[in-house]
Amino acid sequence: MNDETWADLRSQCGAVEPGAELVTPLSKRPFRIDATADDRIVVRFTDSTEERPLWREQFGVLDEQLEGGEMAVADLQPGVEPYAAVLTLSDAYAAEDDAIVRDDDAATGGESPFLVPAAEARTPAERVHDDALLLAHLVERLEVDDRADLDSLDTDSLTDYYVLASDVQRGADGLRTTARDELLERLGPEQELHGRFGTVRRTTRKRRRPKDDETVLAALDERGIPREWVLGVDPDKLDVVLSVTDLEEGAVYDTTEDVYVQKTATDEDEKYSRLQGLADRLADLEDAEGEAIRDEIDAIEDRLEEALTAG
């Protein structure tokens, strides 16, 4: 690989959006570019935190192979996959028809089918953090404390408030489920675990569902229990009758309506853009006011720690 191509590849790697990821073409392992040097590009796999140097010399070997034609993605060896993914960021290489090719005309520097934008590359925990931060900022800006405050909100703000609260709830529930499964591996019967913010224990709930009809009816017959005591209307069969006869639904169903608000879409791009704006503002918060806020947070944490220790 000549100096010009190598310099371009390093430049494109350095220009990748912070937080964006590449994925290996076959195994779909996500990784991020950590650094570049004269003889290597250092990547870190986010599914294992494994760091790996991608050597310029090996890029050169791949470059020589591509001079003679294309390289099918399906034929890539595991060790070559990250090289191929990074290579497609260059102005000289592209991924076309499931193959890596050297094509200056088709290549679009800095773009790659294996590149995942930062907004999409976030982990579930990072998404919950970001959504919670956006919701907290919105609550603070709108000064929402109770239901009375919601009455005064304009419709757009109220919609944003609902969408963000819904996203936080959904994301947090996913994290809770993951944590629950891990805690079940650590909790013994009747055991409790204590953290700084609360206590958990292993609880067992019994859920029942009837055995198959033949087994149930046989058990009733064996004990002389009339079958009609347990036989009832099958809703599925009743729906079939409604669909093929002139029987009216109101004659066999009591119908009620529940009115609720359904979130039909979330604008992730807008949320991420807003989040980046908040991040930039926080990064610029280096004046006396910012220092005072940090001191206040430290004081609150100290008081919390003292209270927990005393308790």
Automatic annotation (TrEMBL):
Pfam families, per the entry? DUF7983 (PF25943)
InterPro entries linked: DUF7983
| Name of the protein in question | DUF2800 domain-containing protein
Q: Which organism is it from?
A: Haloterrigena alkaliphila
